[in-house]
Design goal:
Oligomer: single chain
Strand order of the largest sheet: 2-1-3-6-7
Strand content: 25-35%
CATH superfamily of the largest domain: Response regulator
CATH architecture of the largest domain: 3-Layer(aba) Sandwich
Helix content: 25-40%
Number of domains: 2
Length: 248
């Protein structure tokens, strides 16, 4: 049985989550509820839950303020938020899941099922550290992103990434220090996530950080990055690249 605490400043939302869990997730037992950072901290320490449902905005602070009170997180977290744009940016960079209000049973069940998948305490705490860094850092190119391989999980500054290169169902990530990280996500996932923070997909198999672009060799149809790597530019991307360069 999964022991859960619901943290939300609105009683209606507390009751809704509790009722949905009773109806659709029999393996989850609600052992406590709280409506503020202060009461949530006491409730978590009292009940030592396996899982918390955590709202972002509360009267005396935020869910992130609550997490900062713990030296190490030893419980799973499902974030619940009404702020869609904020959630998409912050949580996707850190590879953490969230559900949006108004709550739908299917989304809640999917979040609980995904939470049950094995995630080590070390992995969770690194992802949370990345999330909290991104919340505190308003400058987009100073944000961090979580990169996960079969053996390790990394928290990397976006500005330390030179480029991404597709390799079958995997993606190679090239860093400024010469290291390469092979991750199991597709190029499309990184393109969707990073297109608005200075990254450009210049080719079906290549996504570059414009901050690390050295030059565009128009005749040859490729770009040269600051690490001297050469990246092809597809014909349909040349005009877009030129438009961006003319903006500088």
């Amino acid at each position: 049985m999964i022991r859960a605490v619901i943290i939300d400043d609105e009683i209606n939302n507390q009751e809704l989550i509790s009722n949905l869990l009773k109806s659709y997730a029999e393996n989850v037992q609600v052992v406590g509820m709280a409506n503020s950072v202060e009461t949530a901290y006491k409730t978590i320490n009292e009940h030592n839950p396996d899982l918390i449902f955590l709202d972002i905005q509360m009267p005396d602070g935020t869910g992130f303020d609550l997490l900062k009170k713990f030296e190490k997180i030893n419980f799973k977290i499902i974030f619940v938020t009404a702020h869609q744009e904020f959630a998409i940016e912050a949580f996707k960079y850190s590879a953490l899941d969230y559900i949006l209000k108004p709550l739908a049973p299917a989304n809640l069940l999917a979040a609980v099922k995904k939470m049950e998948d094995t995630m080590s305490s070390e992995e969770l705490n690194l992802k949370l550290k990345t999330l909290l860094n991104n919340i505190a850092e308003p400058i987009k190119n100073k944000k961090k992103i979580v990169l996960k391989t079969m053996e390790r999980i990394y928290s990397v500054d976006l500005d330390d990434i030179i480029r991404f290169e597709s390799d079958g169902g995997y993606t190679k990530v090239y860093l400024v220090d010469g290291k390469r990280i092979m991750v199991s996500k597709t190029m499309k996932e990184y393109d969707d996530l990073l297109m608005d923070v200075g990254f450009l997909r210049v080719h079906h198999s290549h996504l570059i950080n414009m901050n690390h672009l050295f030059c565009f060799e128009k005749a040859e149809g490729h770009v040269v990055m600051k690490d001297d790597s050469i990246v092809p530019v597809s014909n349909r991307k040349k005009d877009h690249l030129m438009e961006l360069l003319n903006m500088f």
